[in-house]
Every structure is written in structure tokens, then in C-alpha cells.
Amino acid sequence: MQKSEFSFVKRLRALGSTPFGHGVLMSLLADYRRPNDKIASWLAAGVVVALRRGLYVLGPDLQDRPVSMPLVANLLYGPSYVSLDSALSHYGLIPEGVVTVTSVTTRRTRICTTPLGLFTYAHLPAALYSPGICQAAHSDGTFYLMATPAKALCDKVVLTRKLQATSVQACSNFAGRFAHRRRCAAQCRYRTIGSAQLATRCGTCRPCKKRWRRCHDNRSRANAVALPA
């Protein structure tokens, strides 16, 4: 590696894992007659990785720590802040791990595919956007915008399709449907008699009715005997 090239790589390493713009690269290559050609060669060699037009991170071989995915989400498409499933998982409010970084924006809903992963953005009206946003710190010392736990829950309720969250009673009814499904799962037990199956029918929810009908048809086709007392 030439001395000048080594000097450039050393200056690039100083950027760390923080995303940077095209202007930063242009300032590093101020003495080059054709700096864009040099940037293109760095992109081809994996020295820098393009997230979108004008936004880059260092290649994996030059990174001294992982890139802050929430910070990338803020910079990739804005104005935006991390919320919904990503924020709920961060606060331990849902047990699932979330691979996609989910955010909320006042702009149009969008999905961004990058070399680092998938980033999704849900549209939220401007009147509901600002309250409940806080600054969170990453392990590399950078800061990014994220919803508070309460705001992340509110965003989830507002942006969940077909959820009629217009009152406390409507939210209670929505939660009650999930509790009913858990009760049905315990009640609708299969009992096997030869090749036929019967189910205890709760008689209220649609999945249980379909399950009962399927079991009843199987019993009729197999001419099963009656259950013993």
C-alpha cells in the first residue's frame, strides 16, 4: 500500500462506525483532481459502503465497532425516529427479537433495503409526531432519536390496521378478543377415537366453530362410535 493510500485509510478509520456524507469524503480527497473516481474505487473495493445516495459507512474491515442501526435509521430517511416493534423490543415490552429497524416519519411510508439490513418507516400525522421523542445513547457514544416506551405503545396502537382505538372501551374489547382466544385454545381439546376426532366446542368464536365442524365431518366419514361415559 502506498504511503498516501495508507494515510487516507488512517483518516477513514478515524470516522469510526458513524455514518458520514459525501462531503466528508470530498474533504478528505480535496487534493485529488478527480475525487469522485477515487470514491468509486473505494466503493468497488468495499472500503466504504453506500447506504443511499450521499450516505456511507466504513467497510467491515475498517470498522472498530458495530454501526449504530438506530442512528442509520434516523439518517437514512427523515425526519424520523425509531419506534414500534424496534422500540418495544429495546424496552423489553415484547419478547420477540426484531431484525428490521422500524421507525415513524411524517413523510410517506417507505421501506429501505441497505447492505446493513432492512429499515421500514410508517407515516404518522404531524400532529401526533413530536410528543414522546427522546434521545438514546449507543455504545459507540453516538445519539439517536427513539420513542419513549409510552410513545412506542401509542404509535403501535395508532398504526395497527383495523384496530378501532377510538375509546377506552374499544381498546378493552380488542384486548378481550386475545384473552378469549387463549381460553378457547385450552377448551378446544382434540380426543381421538379410531380415525375420528372430536373437539369440545366453546360455541362462541369463529376458529372454534370451524374446528368443531372439521372434526364433526371427520367423525361422520369414519363412522366413529360414541364417546364412552
Structure characteristics:
229 residues, three-stranded antiparallel sheet, alpha+beta
Helix proportion of residues, in percent?
Answer: 40-55%
- Strand element count: 11
- Ranges with pLDDT <50 over ≥5 residues? 189-202
Q: What's the main sheet like?
A: 4 strands, mixed
Description:
The chain is α+β, with helices and mostly antiparallel strands. 42% of the residues lie in helices and 21% in strands. A four-stranded mixed beta sheet has the order 4-5-7-6.
In short:
This protein is α+β, with helices and mostly antiparallel strands and 229 residues long. It contains 9 helices and 11 strands. 42% of the residues lie in helices and 21% in strands.
Itemize the secondary structure elements and their pairings.
Blueprint: H1 3-13, E1 20-21, H2 22-28, H3 35-45, E2 48-52, E3 55-58, H4 69-76, E4 80-82, H5 84-90, E5 101-105, E6 110-114, E7 117-123, H6 126-129, E8 133-137, E9 143-147, H7 149-159, H8 168-187, E10 190-193, E11 196-199, H9 206-222
Helix pairs in contact: 5-7
